[in-house]
Specification:
Shape: globular
Helix content: 55-70%
């Protein structure tokens, strides 16, 4: 294991692997473009035949069916790869190289499949306008707006893959799910579902009217799986909490769960109709449950847990009976968001006590509930805007834009609040170490904090040992004021990184116990010795030991560039949903007008039903 650690680079990949990965990407792109060229010049009917066959089975036009099936399978592949990749990094640490990690292939091919699905959605329609909101690409070639959104999201996610290596070369390895380039992969894949939903509506041209009119069982199942996919995508951000190795304050977990529930479950109920929220949740639970079985027992890695969402789904369905969503959609969204952020939040708190080591306790009772409320309401309003857009009943532009910007501001403020953490400069921990085994070395550990009254009502006082071919998360037993003890032996050998972690309110800090020598960084061994005293330091100094000091503001500038690109993608999604909603509404309103009517294709908001 020590030899393996020496061969794991702490910066970018070897040049040979970069060239090989580039070659794979170029080959896939050339093959995709060649297929598109043959189709557009009508020298091949392969895409048409495959699309028509899939369309016959799913009830969708071929140019919708093929991209939808390809994108769905690709997203599931990428999700499996991502959860497998997280488990591998928690268990063994850095990769020997990006192509030495088998999970990376699933992520790479999955994200390319999303991009390819978008390109095919744009390329496959040959005759006539593909939907009421089609965009003129070149003369004789109109593309569906859903295809544009899908292509943009897929490209953005795929771009995160090579940029991740650039990031590591500049700043070292950030072993966290929330690294900027990692968020590109996650965000692009998650937002691609919006492109699929718009594409679905463009292909059918009919209006989903909600309760009592689902357009057939096949369409209901497609829409339920799409909304379940949206819930899957919005839930990926919680990944570190799912593995019990969060590197951020605990209040972010209820916030993210409530926001994901608000966005996906409200959109599902308002768009699909009765049972939509429950159907989306069922799809989520089945997929995440199967992936947990594959990653855990199947591949022998850590088993990822996941939120339940059932409590929130039931609340949304019940509230829809009392406050019909079609009448006042934003009011329904706000009310449902409150229910998700309170009662739904309580059900998730109970679920953490079943599946997580790091459960929600009294330390985050007030702030965690407030964060869940913020996430639930903001997410629910975004879900309501998405659903009304898909149903061609978007509020007038000023209301829609104002609600969107307000929700994004609330989400950004909540995230910023969750990221604020402090590290005490006058706290020390003294350790007593009683060896249980010597080869390999494991030990029972006692901890005495100074000052003893440093902690009030902590979210956790625990020892984490990871990246030594496994994960150990051990909440400590309190044996006296400021004194704690392990309830099981922890590893102190090989490549294990073992640390005491303390989280109380805004305090998020750590004390190193044992860290191995790492020549790639380079870093000396920090041995574990009985009676040693260690000072509190930021957790990131241990959990992301490979990070380098950027200096000169390069880190800030790079983060701002990624943030700007992310906001541009969100803006593109808002534009696409708005374009579809308003142009399709005008087309529907004047469906009986003469072909040469001046109102045909108008985009003025005055013509759009409110």
């Amino acid at each position: 294991m020590l030899l393996a650690a020496e061969t794991r680079p702490a910066g970018g990949a070897a040049l040979g692997e970069v060239l090989l990965a580039t070659g794979i990407g170029v080959a896939l792109t050339v093959a995709l473009l060649a297929l598109v060229l043959l189709h557009r010049t009508r020298r091949s009917t392969l895409l048409t035949r495959v699309g028509d066959r899939l369309g016959g089975a799913t009830g969708a036009p071929g140019w919708v069916a093929l991209p939808t099936v390809l994108t769905t399978l690709s997203l599931l592949t990428a999700l499996l790869g991502m959860l497998w990749d997280i488990a591998l990094h928690i268990g063994v640490g850095r990769d020997e190289g990006p192509l030495a990690n088998p999970a990376h292939y699933l992520i790479l091919f999955g994200l390319f499949g999303v991009f390819a699905g978008g390109v095919l959605a744009c390329a496959m329609p040959l005759d006539g306008e593909p939907g009421p909101a089609a965009v003129r690409f070149v003369r004789g070639w109109d593309v569906p707006v859903g295809g544009i959104l899908l292509t943009a999201a897929g490209f953005y996610a795929l771009l995160g893959f090579p940029l991740d290596d650039v990031w590591h070369r500049m700043f070292g390895q950030d072993v966290t799910l929330w690294g900027p380039t990692h968020l590109m992969l996650i965000g692009g894949a998650g937002l691609s579902i919006i492109g699929l939903l718009v594409l679905e509506q463009e292909g059918h041209g009919g209006l989903s009217t909600g309760d009592g009119d689902r357009g057939g069982t096949a369409r209901f199942l497609r829409q339920a799986s799409a909304m379940g996919g949206l819930l899957l995508g919005m839930s990926v951000f919680q990944g570190e909490y799912d593995f019990d190795v969060p590197q951020f304050r605990l209040v972010l977990e209820p916030f993210m769960i409530a926001a994901a529930a608000g966005i996906a479950l409200i959109a599902a109920r308002m768009f699909i109709g009765r049972g939509g929220a429950l159907a989306a949740t069922a799809f989520f639970l089945v997929v995440r449950g199967l992936i947990a079985l594959v990653v855990g027992p199947g591949l022998g890695e850590l088993v990822p847990t996941f939120p339940l969402y059932l409590g929130s789904a039931v609340l949304v369905e019940l509230l829809a009976r009392l406050l019909p969503p079609a009448r006042r959609p934003l009011l329904f969204g706000a009310a449902a968001g409150v229910a998700i952020g309170t009662v739904g939040h309580a059900t998730e708190a109970g679920w953490t006590h079943v599946v997580q080591e790091l459960t929600w306790g009294s330390d985050i009772l007030v702030e965690g509930t407030l964060m869940a409320l913020a996430g639930g309401v903001a997410g629910a309003l975004l879900g309501a805007l998405l659903a009304t857009g898909l149903r061609r009943r978007l509020p007038r532009p000023a209301v829609a834009r104002g609600a969107l910007l307000a929700c994004l501001a609330v989400l950004a403020a909540a995230v910023a609040n969750g990221l604020v953490a402090t590290v005490p400069d006058d706290v020390e921990a003294t350790f007593t170490i009683e060896d249980v085994t010597t080869d390999p070395r494991t030990a029972d550990i006692g901890v005495r904090l100074d000052p003893a009254d440093f902690l009030d009502d902590p979210a956790w006082v625990q020892i984490t040992a990871w990246q030594g071919q496994g994960l150990v998360v051990t909440p400590l037993e309190r044996v006296g004021e400021g004194e704690y003890r392990t309830t099981e032996p922890v590893p102190l050998h090989g490549t294990w990184k073992t640390l005491l972690r303390v989280h109380d309110g805004r305090v998020l800090t750590a004390f190193p116990i044992y860290l191995p020598q790492d020549e790639a960084i380079p870093a000396d061994e920090i041995p574990a010795e009985d009676g040693m005293t260690r000072s509190a330091i930021p957790e990131i100094d241990i959990l992301q030991r490979e990070l380098e000091d950027s200096g000169g503001g390069l880190w800030l500038v790079s983060n701002l560039v990624v943030l700007g690109c992310t906001l541009a993608l969100i803006a593109a999604m808002a534009w696409g949903v708005g374009r579809y909603a308003r142009r399709a509404a005008v087309r529907e309103l004047f469906a009986d007008a003469p072909a040469d009517s001046p109102v045909e294709g108008t985009t003025t908001s005055a013509a759009v039903p409110r």
